[in-house]
Amino acid sequence: MIKITDVKKVYKSKDGDVTALKSINLNIEQGDIYGIIGPSGAGKSTLIRIINLLEEPSSGNVLIDGVDLTSLSKGELREERKEIGMIFQNFNLMNNSTVSQNIAFPMEISHIDKNVIKDRLDELLDMVGLKDKENVYPAKLSGGQKQRVGIARALANKPKILLCDEPTSALDPVTTKSILELLKDINEKLNITIVLITHQMEVIKTICNKTAVIENGLIVEEGLTQDILANPSSETLKQFLS
Amino acid sequence: MDFELARIMSLIMPSLWETVYMVTLSTIFSVILGLPMGIIVVISEKGHIWEHKGINNILSYLINIFRSIPFIILIIILFPLARIVVGTSIGSTAAIVPLSIAASPFVARIVETSMKEIDYGIIEAALAHGASTIQIITKVMIKEAMPSLILGLSLTTINILGYSAMAGAIGGGGLGDLAIRYGYQRFQTDILIATVIILIIVVEVIQRSGNLFARLLDKRIKE
């Protein structure tokens, strides 16, 4: 489904180059909830942005269903991105747009028929439990509600992949739990592949069937979550577990 | 007394309309020129959606150069251009040309500041969902910056109103022209005072309506 081969990312700056990702290989399968955990500065945020090419790799390939994203034109990449939803730590909702307008955004930019958007909006609001908030602006929502809007927006175009950039890092424990349940639910009902990055062990334990540990721009450990938790080999993971 | 007031009003009203005409059209044209400039300066910056170092540098320099020329000098330089564009270099219509051009770098800077207030995460989210550069500008950036742009617009209009008085001094007509000809050159203090009062009211109306619209459109703050 998602195949990352030998991806490197170097940021060039006047004070010298900074290597964010050294050599990353990942293979994520259809239906996975794939967790990538690591300390801050390990390259998690760069890695998840490599998957939809918000960050362009310095070398290496990103294959989604066999299509190499690094070989696409700008227009083709935009079309491919419509198949990949994304949610963010700070939600990144448009402040001057209502809940409905935020959720409808990916459909509007795809020029989907207004009536179809309307029906789809009902479905999405229902799915994330925000039926009564459709005309509310984000400033009046709680963190958990904002993330639900983010999730609905990410799912609007019926993507095959959902990327989650620290989806629960800004939320309290109770809200975190409900958001994780929602993600799990979506994964099961829609059979959507989820890739998430986090620094919270709890997120990994609760929903990820597979896990990779990233440290200093390298994947130091990966496998089925139950296996690597039972038998951690890297220092990073041992520290997370202690 | 009534006769006095009627005399003052008969002088002021035509000038007021000239000013309104000059300022309104100049504001519209300065926005048409300045808005794209401001947007391009923002999106062509490093790490933004249309990174373009050369264009960014050229535009920034141009804006700064135009902003450092004193307005009264700029009008004198640009009046010949007015003759080419509108066929005359005298009167309110002619004044619109230098006023629009002189105010457009100011508009560009205001647009730039407003657009830079937008959290880049919001733009990144739009990119992630497949939005094109144009869609991000029209559907995300302008919409998100709207309250701040409206405040900038009232600031611009008030600035142009001030500039228009200077344009009046060299044949542009309007309230500034009236105040100088009657109030200053003919020592008619009542005309001078009346002009100032009218200008204060006009500025107040522009500022208050700007504030009101900006507040109505700003959904960032909880009520």
CATH superfamily of chain B, called what? MetI-like
The succession of helices and strands of chain A, N to C, reads EEEHEEHEHHHEHEHEEHH
Query: What count of domains describes the coordinates of chain B?
Result: 1
Number of DSSP E strands of chain B: 0
* End-to-end separation of chain B: 50 Å
| Strand order across the largest sheet of chain A | 6-7-8-3-9-10
| Strand runs of chain A, count | 10
Oligomer: heterodimer
Bin the helical content of chain A: 25-40%
- The N- and C-terminal alpha carbons of chain A lie at a distance of 33 Å
CATH overall fold name of the largest domain in chain A:
Rossmann fold
* Largest beta-sheet characterization of chain B: none
Average pLDDT value of chain B? 93
How would you sum up this structure, described in words?
The complex is a heterodimer of chains A (242) and B (223). Chain A has 242 residues and is α/β, with parallel strands linked by helices. Chain A has two domains: 165 residues, 3-Layer(aba) Sandwich (Rossmann fold); 61 residues, no CATH class. Chain A contains nine helices and ten strands. Chain A has a six-stranded mixed sheet, with helices on both faces. In chain A, helix 3 crosses helix 4 and helix 5 runs parallel beside helix 6. Chain A is globular and about 50 Å long. The mean pLDDT of chain A is 96. Chain B is an all-alpha fold.
Q: What is the strand and helix layout of this fold?
A:
The complex is a heterodimer of chains A (242) and B (223).
Chain A: E1 2-11, E2 18-28, E3 33-37, H1 44-51, E4 59-64, E5 67-68, H2 74-81, E6 84-87, H3 99-108, H4 114-127, H5 143-155, E7 161-165, H6 173-190, E8 193-198, H7 201-207, E9 210-215, E10 218-224, H8 225-230, H9 235-241
Parallel strand pairs in A: 3-8, 3-9, 6-7, 7-8
Antiparallel strand pairs in A: 1-2, 1-4, 4-5, 9-10
Helix pairs in contact in A: 3-4, 3-5, 5-6
Chain B: H1 2-43, H2 53-68, H3 71-86, H4 92-116, H5 120-128, H6 133-172, H7 175-185, H8 189-217
